């Protein structure tokens, strides 16, 4: 996978796709509150990463992440083995509905899973 292998969506779209809602102090449930509490991981410095529709470079490119982007990781799954700035791995991160990037382009502080496995 090259330096331009993955992508992410604008904050408004991410909020709409939060995996679970959070309850506000008033008791209202909002996806925005859930997204605000979700940890975001930085993409490797200097890389514009293509976001794929599945866990491999043969899947179509959905978009490309800009430099300096941070992404949520909702779940992870094995896929194509890829080498990137953070090593070689077959682990792919789901950053939005139907959007995956190689874990080798995301600084998670771990060589393994940091989120639940995708179904």
TrEMBL record:
Residues 49-114 form the SH3b domain. Residues 18-29 have a biased composition (Low complexity). Pfam families: SH3_3. Gene3D superfamilies: SH3 Domains. Residues 1-29 are annotated as: Disordered. This is SH3b domain-containing protein. It comes from Streptomyces nanshensis.
